[in-house]
Design goal:
The structure holds three protein chains of three kinds.
Chain A: H1 3-15, E1 19-24, E2 27-31, H2 37-46, E3 51-60, E4 65-73, E5 80-88, E6 93-95, H3 98-116, E7 119-121, H4 146-153
Chain B: H1 6-14, E1 19-21, H2 26-36, E2 48-50, E3 58-62, H3 67-79, E4 85-89, E5 117-119, H4 126-141
Chain C: E1 13-18, E2 29-35, E3 38-45, H1 53-56, H2 62-68, H3 77-92, H4 98-127, H5 130-150, E4 161-162, E5 165-166, H6 174-192, H7 197-203, H8 211-217, H9 222-225, H10 233-236, H11 257-280, E6 304-312, E7 315-323, E8 331-335, H12 338-349, H13 358-364, H14 369-373
Antiparallel strand pairs in C: 1-2, 2-3, 4-5, 6-7, 7-8
Helix pairs in contact in C: 2-3, 3-4, 4-5, 4-11, 4-13, 5-6, 6-11
The chains are: A alpha/beta, B alpha/beta, C alpha+beta.
Chain lengths: 167, 144, 374
Amino acid sequence: MDKKESEFLKKIKTKFKIDGKVQRDRRIWISITDDKLIEICKWMKENGFVHLSAISVTDWLKDGNYELTYHLWSYDDKILVTIKTRINRNKPNIESVTPIWEKNAQIHERELHELFGVNFNGNEDLVPLFLENWKGPAPFRKDFDWRDFVRDEFYDKKNEREQVYYD
Amino acid sequence: MVKRSEKAKTMRKIIKAIWIFNWFNSCGFAELVPLVGSRWDMERFGMIIVGTPRHADVLFIAGYQTHKSIERAKRVYEQMAEPRVVIALGSCTMTGGMYWDSYNTIKKLDDYLPVTMYIPGCPPRPEAVFEACEKIFEHVKELE
Amino acid sequence: MIKEMEPAPKGSEYDFYFGPAHPGSGNFGVKLKLEGEVVVSARADPGYLHRGFEKLMEYRTPLQNAVLSDRLCILEPLNWNLIHAEAVDELMGIDIPERAKYIRVIMAELSRIQSHIIWYGVFSKGVGFDTGFKLAFGYRDYIMDLFELITGGRVYPAGYICPGGVRRDFPKDTKKKILKVLDKMNKIIKLEELENPAMNARAKGVGILKLKDAIRLGATGPVIRGSGMNTDVRKEEPYEIYDRLDFEVPIRKEGDAYARYWIGIEEMKQSINIVKQALEELPDGEVIDSSLKKPKLTTKIPEGEVYVRNEISRGEAGIYMVSNGEVSPYRTKVRGPDFLHMIPVLEYLLKGVQIADVPAVYWSLNICPADMDR
């Protein structure tokens, strides 16, 4: 069952020095440092991984960094490879993968720039996507508590019927 | 003989068949559009969907609104001609509903637009919408 | 002799906002730049329905999230219920009973049929065939009655497909009622198959998407199958019981709006076939895993991360869930197919199209703005 995936993982490990594991059939997870991102992504696209499924950011508040994950799918081999890399949380900067996956990557990066504040070098069109006139912090960060924000802004503590929201 | 104001007399003459403006929000799309279909046919009561706010009598605000879409709804409301009615559907317009802790939705529609009638439910059934329209006709008949 | 019309003079561009208050669009706006009657460029304007779903899920337990997950896209709630339940099942390491797997597939396929009927109705309205719109929404109500019988809600099933299986078993005589409803669906399919002059004139040859552009722009589902690619998540990595069922995947090579519409009709026929097979093989037994039968608010999710892929009626859906041992997931990323269809693919397809053809191209992509904004 896992033979094809283990062979592919060995192929990547001999070419680049990385950590990786096979989670189950059709799932490989690898961790890299952020300076090798563009090189590895170019190699993956040439080896059949033409479909970028999603890009996502996880905010690890205690460790002080953001973890970026790139999920890639190959139509020929039918394997999903996830590339994970970590960057600093206070000054999040990373190279953009738009030269490799073009518009598909560009729209994912635009959304993450708005919601988490990540700066992608090389992506020219990082204007806000969903929000209009938003002046607060990046909304999806872990230090911005939504329940406190909503209680201050919208609900009234003195109103008897809205006491429920303050429990 | 009851003495009625000019406004009440006009409303009694005009609001006999309601023309609804085509503003189907998120949850309204799945529960108001079947009203147009052939099972809950609303044309037999005289209600039709119109494409411009100048022709419409009723604005249905169905479902949650965000800051961006309430601005557009306000502009549509300002363009409607008197007499006009706003009906709010669903529990998200009353207290915030299921998304009460979201930073982008508005919690009480009454702070932004003058609402005539609320219909509870998540989402309300089509029979509830018809009953609401019937109550509006009665309300207009007894207006002073 | 009728003279040919001259094209509009250069420099006479004007802006047109095809926005949410326009009768031809949904909750979504597109800023068009026109020269005469031809679209020069298009820019999408999303965000009318943004609630921040992914962070709302971090404040709630998995059972509460199951109720919230059907509001990700109102037009097909059960399919999103299913993918969220699969993600939590895989994180917790639960193996669900056989009867639950068959019931999940039956409900997901019924939801797919209902979603394609809406696509057919709204596409007909955009093209000008109003009878199709009214009849489609009339026939869809048979399936809504079935949902009310089984799950309790016409539109939102209140988290019927939850982590561990399904909430409750089928009532008596459900199998007979489902078979009766499927016979009625055949009638609307016959109407859709008629060679309709309105559809031929307005949908053939309009909005052509070639295969290499589709792969480059990230299209999935019926949009890329209309351009010739043989791909379906149910065949590539089968989940639940799809590897035991016998069905085909319809493909066309032209890539225009008519090809995508034809694929929608053929997929409805295949879904009817799948439901009939699953109903015949339905085994007896429990419908929910015993550890989650009486859920508590303090059950913790084990540490780990998963990425689950499913085929919903609009394309490929994905959920990436990370947990660090607490009662709520630490991060949930929802990948919807409409995020790619409505922004890069639509902006590319609308270039060079006449303004009267904009609704036909727009509705042929089977969009759902709630899925894009989340």
